[in-house]
Amino acid sequence: MDKQIILLPGDGIGREIMESARLVLTTIASEYGHKFTFHEHAIGGDAIDHYGVPLPEETIHACQEADAVLLGAVGGPEWDTVPAHLRPEKGLLGIRKSLGLFANLRPVKEFAALIHASPLKEEIVKDSDIMIVRELTGGLYFGQPSERRENGNAVVDTLYYRRSEMERIIEKGFETARIRKKHLTSVDKANVLESSRMWREIVEEKAKDYQDVKVEHLLVDAAAMKLITQPNQFDVIVTENLFGDILSDEASVLTGSLGMLPSASIRSDGVGLYEPVHGSAPDIAAKGIANPLGMILSAALMLRYSFGLEEEAAEIERSVDECLEQGFHTPDLKIREGTQVGTKKITEIVLENLTTKGISDSICNMYV
Ligand code: NAD
Ligand code: IPM
Ligand code: MN
Q1: Which atom of ligand 2 is nearest to the CA of 104?
Q2: Could you say which DSSP state residue 365 is in?
Q3: Which residues are found with C-beta within 5 Å of the ion, ligand 3?
Q4: What pLDDT was estimated at residue 363?
Q5: What is the mean pLDDT of residues 41-64?
Q6: Which residues does 345 contact at the CB level (< 8 Å), separation at least 6?
Q7: Degrees (nearest 5) of the Cα angle 188, 189, 195?
């Protein structure tokens, strides 16, 4: 298979973890006889520094032409004072919107080797396997331009959703549940928000077309509580943009670290942008200790969802599992046993686990 992949490393730890994903994909390509060509482009603070804007036209164009996109992370304190419309985060929101990537799939699964890394009790975390289906191109993130009023003493952010935007993500939620355990939890705030009442109506309408899927509604505050008290009661969660953002960081606690979670931002035709759930982690940037596993697992999702390479994706996931079973972990995972290593070393372990012949020196030397 011959594929063109855009790399958007971005800011903070973005470049460090992107290098890990690139090496993993290069190894998989050589093991399975594929040709992946990588093209790097700027986004976020990196793009502001080089081009004066967080999302250059040239980056959008390259992503539109590519087979898939991998993104590291954007943002950091360096750009906290830039005008709101130029913030690094606008680059990420902009690329999701311009590619029409309305569905953000965030799998959260217990890793057996990390069961003691979570601050939650083992019996709570055990058997957790959740897919969060988050709406990605609407809601509060994309309402009318936010504004300050009354001499800066009042503020307006607008939550705007079209029915069609709710319908397509809710359908995605049902479809996802149908190929899993057929249990869909729709999360909203229908006791307060009109948008949530419309959301709930649509869920009820769509449920008629998915009689094989068991549906329940949960208010977002209760969902936040249940997520860390009875996580193994969930299968698929479907929710709007902001609730999905918050709940997915919370759910990462099940795995022991935000650095473990991958995500796929996709649209109906399989085109996708793959990005870890975490941010640019400015507090640990350039220290060589970032956890690259969420980024590596995002590359696996790219192979599965955009390229249909199930076996290769599963092989990456197996190599990550094996690395954790061998006891290797980065310092964000708070476990006493095992061996604490940095970004480069843990990547090398994953690469070794990937190859039947053992890691070749040429691949090792490609690490920059
Ligand atoms: P963050 O996710 O960057 O970091 C939160 C905490 O988790 C930090 O202590 C960090 O060190 C740790 N962490 C995150 N990823 C890690 C990894 N891979 N390995 C080890 N530790 C990891 O969230 P934040 O600090 O609130 O935000 C920092 C910046 O990132 C902000 O500018 C924010 O807007 C941006 N952000 C970007 C994305 C994205 O690009 N997708 C996502 C979230 C936040
Ligand atoms: C995420 C991030 C982004 C979001 C920010 C950086 C715009 O938190 O991908 O989860 O809120 O979608
Ligand atoms: Mn987030």
Answers
A1: 9
A2: T
A3: 245
A4: 52
A5: 98
A6: 328
A7: 80
Separation CA 187–CA 196 (nearest Å): 9
Query: Looking up tokens 């190894």, which residue turns up?
Result: 27
289-344 pLDDT, tens digit each = 999 999 999 999 999 999 999 999 999 999 999 999 999 999 999 998 999 999 99
Q: Is this model's pTM higher than 0.85 or not? A: yes
Q: Which CATH superfamily is domain 119-255 in?
A: Isopropylmalate Dehydrogenase (3.40.718.10)
Name the pLDDT band for 366 (thresholds 50, 70, 90).
low
Is 119-255 the same fold as 1-107+257-368?
Answer: yes
> Would you say the CB of residue 245 lies under 6 angstroms from ligand 2?
yes
pLDDT at residue 360 greater than cutoff 70: no
Q: Is the pLDDT of residue 1 over 50?
A: yes
Q: Is 209 a catalytic residue?
A: no
How many CA within 13 A on the CB side of residue 360?
13
Domain 1-107+257-368 class? alpha beta
Q: Is the pLDDT of residue 150 over 50?
A: yes
**Residue 307 in tokens:** 């390229």
Catalytic member of 51, 249, 321, 367: 249
> Which two structure tokens, joined as six digits, stand for 53?
């804007």
258 lines ligand 2 (CB under 6 A): no
Domain boundaries, the chain: 1-107+257-368, 119-255
Question: Per-residue pLDDT for 359 more than 90?
Answer: no
Which residue has a Cα nearest atom 27 of ligand 1?
A: 279
Q: Which of 101, 278, 333 to mutate to test the pocket of ligand 1 (most atoms within 8 A of CB)?
A: 278
pLDDT confidence of 362, banded at 50, 70, 90? Answer: very low
